[in-house]
Amino acid sequence: MPTTRVDLHAKVLDDEAVRRAKAAGIDVLVYAPHFTRLPDARERAAEYSDEELLVVPGREVFTGSWRDRKHVLAVGLDDPIPDFVTLDGAFAAFREQDAAVLAPHPEYLTVSLTAAEIERFREDVDAVETYNPKHFPWDNDRARALADGYDIPGFASSYAHRAATVGGVWTEFDADIQSEADLVDALKSGVARRTYHQRNPRFRARELVEKAHLAYENTWEKVDRLLLSGMEPTHPRHIAYGGEFDDVAIY
Questions:
Q1: What one-character-per-residue DSSP string does 76-125 give?
Q2: Is the distance from CB of 106 to CB of 146 less than 8 angstroms?
Q3: Which residues contact residue 234 at a Cβ distance below 8 angstroms, ignoring those fewer than 6 apart?
């Protein structure tokens, strides 16, 4: 039976990230950078895709306000969806586009879907992340219990914000995934899969650096975005969205 190694969530895409993915035998890398519109992510993904590695664009949509964020990862979108919309509005848009919907880092800090929200959107959530380098062991345990409790397939990702983390985590699907459509079908149909991550000291060190990067994201980078950078390109009232999401916009 053919298998495919997939890193289902990375924030970084450059020469080093691609080199590390290929060295680890990863076949598909989902590139879902923060605050980047889908056409831009798709263009960059195409630049780095070749016969050895398929790069698929994704969107980790930030629903709610800065104080009440819920991250939801979508793969297989045709049209852009902004951040800072209601959770119901985001799921309605995912449903309309028949995208695969994933719950990254569930019940983690204040930026994740809770168990109650996963139960509420049970028919829409296609996979729950059960391993993430930013997690502590108890976070992964809780995530696995949540996926098992709702009988939702799991997945692992590098969640790499740094290229050095790429190649350390993957999900192996019992399927031959050659395209974005193949990946969406594998996720939505619940194809059997297994999750893996490196356990050597070097990768443990990279996990610690990723955790430190999270602290940066939630301090200076957050201040920069809130006070200094102006309107995000994925803001729902950005001219690029043509007012389509005004009715579900938070801001």
A1: S-SS---SSB-HHHHHHHHHHHT-EEEE-STT-TTSS--HHHHHHTTTT-
A2: yes
A3: 35, 36, 37, 62, 80, 82, 83, 84
pLDDT digits (tens, 9 = 90+) for 74-93: 999 999 999 999 999 999 99
pLDDT in tens, 94-117: 999 999 999 999 999 888 999 999
CB 59 within 8 A of CB 71: no
pLDDT digit string, tens, across residues 228-241:
456 789 999 999 99
CB count in 10 Å sphere of residue 199: 8
| pTM across the whole model | 0.91
Which segments of the chain are extended strands (E)? 4-10, 28-31, 54-63, 70-75, 100-103, 127-131, 154-156, 169-173, 193-197
How far apart are alpha carbons 33 and 37 in whole angstroms? 9
- Rounded to the nearest integer, the mean pLDDT of the chain is 92
The pair of structure tokens assigned to 6 is 């997939």
Phi, psi of 94 (to 5 degrees): -60, -45
Dihedral sign, CA of 143, 141, 211, 13? negative
- Give Cα separations from 41 to 34, 47, 55, 59 (angstroms): 10, 10, 10, 9
Structure-token match 């852009």, residue found: 80
